């Protein structure tokens, strides 16, 4: 009635702006899995010859911001078939039966236009496990889910309809929805690694002008754990900061400030802080920094600041040298020492603890309790799983409940957690007491510059030799000691390095799939007689006409039969047969016009690029106007390995940075 039961899905056409797989970075495995669906739609015979069937359902799951919806949009731009997009919440209404009717209508439209793809975003809104929730369930949602299950793999014929879905919570979905035949393929989309972050930053950097000191590789190293959306936000914030002060190039300082804004929020420059509180903050953050610097089982501190951001009055940040997937006992204990450094500094210098260590204590308690109850690192408790079950409290499966254990075990767990925190507190206090002179110099420098980075810290702590942690728990290796007379085997890469050979190349199914697709593309081009570089899918229309090629140009003395007079041919070749003369109408589109075209590349000047006129010999260098941190926040020492590699979009080294540019950091009192 009144179209209430009709589907709200939007069909994307060829004219709808979409993405392609070239716009996706940091998720090579997911892209390769989805490429298979595209290949199947374009050339099904190769799969059918092997008896393979196309996956009927693909579920993308992972944390927010990792690119699940972007992957679906890329499939829409690459598939060449009708693509329907709908949200899971569009099925749920206050009237029972409306959602089921919309599911039927959606699949009816899809079958009429098959082969096609349906994408349901946030499918957990309609696909939660039946019988869960307050009161035993939700009739409208469950009927909608039942209809979805029948349409995906029921008694009727589904046809060539592929269902894609995305969710952040695969654990709450109904088991019947996840079984093979419905969602045959479940693809995790996780946070990118170092190489993936570099690729994502390169994509988001297109069209943005960068100063010579901007280093995207260094930015990728210090943004471990960030999703693709976070990285895009960092570069966007840097561009906004540059535009705010009227700049024309994004500097390294703009990237640094943008990263801090994304992590901790904007500066609270207007907050008035007393001199005593500022001094306590300097020693507190200095205690964190020095405690981590004196240990070899934790990453070096990259940056320490006493500037207030968000809800924090300052922070000390460590940066992982690589993407680690696991930590040993000493590394976790070193993080406890790092967290206790602020409180230990307050007690050592002022003799009075403050409320500033509340967040440190909370984080340290979580790590210590996990060491005891989840990772089995306490010899007294043993390798037994204790603690709270992880789950959705509204799903009816493992939410809010606790794994049963006796009161004696609970008391033992509390004792072990308290022991870890107390020992870490003592270790941090002893480090700060031993290096009190370094702590005073660090606090003095922080009060002067407010922000210090690793090059400055390396100069301050040049005479500190990092120590290793000998023992966390008493007699921790008594029962299961390390076999001292035996060494672990070496990896093939380590063996090759020792022999002076080239390390073996790791097999990658993603690279193998890319090579196979490229071979098939060339075979299809040869079979169809298409010119090199123009791909024509088998059995599908791309919706775009290929570029015409009229073959070899006519001879220069060729005339039209019956024309009489012999006139020059403007389209004939001038020298070699493979070369073609320029069409006279090209000049009408700006070709050859110095004001409209870039003669070095033949392309138009992009709006996002800064003009490089004036950077030639004898000309005045272009002045770079970019975001710049105040001088007291910039490092006094630079490292040679921070040298930036040139890339497209970067301004020339001959340019200069205006040191007198005023920005919000300079105006701050």
Structure description:
This protein has 669 residues and is α/β, with parallel strands linked by helices. Helices cover 38% and strands 7% of the residues. It contains 20 helices and 13 strands. The protein has a six-stranded mixed sheet with strand order 1-3-4-5-2-6. Strands 8-7-9 form a three-stranded antiparallel sheet. It has a two-stranded antiparallel ribbon with strand order 10-11. A hairpin with a 4-residue loop joins strand 10 and strand 11. Helix 4 runs parallel beside helix 6, helix 8 crosses helix 10 and helix 13 crosses helix 15. The chain is globular and about 75 Å long. The chain starts with 9 loop residues before the first strand and ends with a helix.
Itemize the secondary structure elements and their pairings.
Elements: E1 10-12, H1 28-42, H2 44-48, E2 57-61, H3 68-79, E3 83-87, H4 98-112, E4 116-121, H5 124-127, H6 139-153, E5 161-167, H7 175-178, E6 185-188, H8 194-204, H9 216-221, H10 228-244, H11 252-264, H12 275-293, E7 301-305, E8 315-318, H13 329-349, H14 358-373, H15 407-434, H16 436-449, E9 451-453, H17 454-460, H18 492-499, H19 509-528, E10 597-598, E11 603-604, E12 623-624, E13 656-657, H20 664-667
Parallel strand pairs: 2-5, 2-6, 3-4, 4-5, 12-13
Antiparallel strand pairs: 1-3, 7-8, 7-9, 10-11
Helix pairs in contact: 1-3, 1-19, 4-6, 8-10, 10-11, 12-13, 12-16, 13-14, 13-15, 14-15, 15-16
């Amino acid at each position: 009635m009144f179209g209430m039961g009709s589907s709200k899905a939007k069909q994307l056409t060829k004219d709808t702006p979409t993405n392609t797989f070239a716009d996706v970075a940091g998720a090579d495995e997911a892209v390769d899995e989805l490429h298979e669906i595209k290949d199947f739609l374009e050339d099904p015979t190769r799969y059918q010859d092997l008896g393979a069937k196309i996956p009927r359902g693909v579920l993308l799951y992972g944390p927010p911001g990792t690119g699940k919806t972007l992957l679906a949009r890329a499939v829409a731009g690459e598939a060449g078939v009708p693509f329907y997009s709908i949200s899971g919440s569009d099925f749920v209404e206050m009237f029972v039966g409306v959602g089921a009717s919309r599911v039927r209508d959606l699949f009816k439209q899809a079958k009429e236009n098959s082969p096609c793809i349906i994408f349901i975003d946030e499918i957990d809104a309609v696909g939660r496990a039946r019988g869960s929730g307050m009161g035993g369930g939700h009739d409208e949602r469950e009927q909608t889910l039942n209809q979805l299950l029948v349409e995906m793999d029921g008694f009727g014929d589904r046809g060539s309809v592929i269902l894609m879905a995305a969710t952040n919570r695969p654990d709450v979905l109904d088991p019947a929805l996840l079984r093979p035949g419905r969602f045959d393929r479940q693809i995790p989309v996780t946070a990118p690694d170092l190489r993936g972050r570099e690729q994502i930053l390169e994509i988001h950097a297109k069209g943005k002008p960068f100063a010579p000191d901007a280093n995207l590789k260094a930015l990728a190293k210090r943004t471990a754990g960030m999703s693709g959306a976070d990285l895009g936000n960092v570069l966007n914030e840097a561009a906004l900061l540059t535009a705010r002060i009227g700049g024309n190039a994004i500097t390294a300082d703009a990237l640094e400030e943008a990263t801090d804004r994304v992590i901790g929020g904007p500066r609270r420059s207007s907050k008035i802080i007393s001199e005593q509180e500022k001094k306590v903050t300097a020693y507190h953050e200095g205690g964190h920094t020095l405690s981590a610097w004196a240990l070899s089982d934790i990453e070096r501190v990259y940056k320490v600041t006493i500037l207030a951001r968000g809800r924090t009055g300052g922070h000390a940040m460590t940066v992982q040298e690589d993407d680690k997937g696991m930590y040993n006992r000493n590394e976790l204990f070193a993080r406890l020492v790092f967290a206790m450094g602020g409180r230990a500094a307050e007690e050592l210098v002022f003799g009075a603890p403050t409320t500033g260590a509340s967040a440190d204590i909370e984080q340290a308690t979580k790590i210590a309790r996990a060491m005891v109850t989840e990772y089995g690192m306490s010899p007294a408790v043993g390798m037994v799983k204790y603690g709270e079950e992880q789950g959705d409290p509204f799903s009816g499966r493992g939410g809010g409940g606790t794994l049963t254990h006796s009161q004696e075990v609970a008391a033992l767990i509390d004792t072990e957690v308290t022991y870890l925190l107390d020992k870490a507190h003592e270790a941090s206090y002893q480090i700060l007491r031993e290096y009190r002179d370094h702590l005073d110099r660090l606090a003095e420098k922080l009060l002067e510059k407010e922000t210090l980075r690793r090059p400055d810290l390396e100069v301050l702590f040049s005479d500190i030799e990092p120590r290793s942690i000998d023992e966390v728990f008493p007699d921790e290796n008594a029962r299961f000691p390390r076999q001292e007379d035996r060494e672990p085997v070496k990896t093939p890469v380590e063996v090759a390095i020792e022999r002076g050979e080239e390390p073996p190349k790791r097999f990658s199914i993603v690279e193998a799939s890319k090579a196979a697709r490229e071979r098939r593309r060339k075979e299809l081009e040869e079979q169809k007689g298409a010119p090199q570089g123009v791909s024509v899918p088998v059995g599908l229309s791309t919706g775009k006409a290929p570029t015409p090629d009229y073959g070899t140009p006519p001879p220069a003395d060729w005339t039209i039969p019956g024309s009489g007079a012999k006139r020059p041919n403007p389209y004939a070749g001038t020298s070699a047969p493979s070369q073609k003369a320029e069409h006279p109408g090209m000049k009408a589109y700006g070709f050859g016009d110095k004001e409209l075209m870039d003669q070095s590349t033949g392309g138009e000047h992009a709006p996002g690029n800064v003009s490089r006129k004036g950077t030639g010999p004898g000309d005045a260098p272009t002045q770079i106007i970019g975001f710049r941190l105040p001088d007291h926040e910039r490092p006094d020492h630079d490292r040679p390995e921070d040298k930036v590699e040139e890339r497209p979009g970067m301004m020339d080294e001959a340019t200069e940075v205006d040191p007198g540019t005023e920005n919000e950091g300079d105006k701050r009192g």
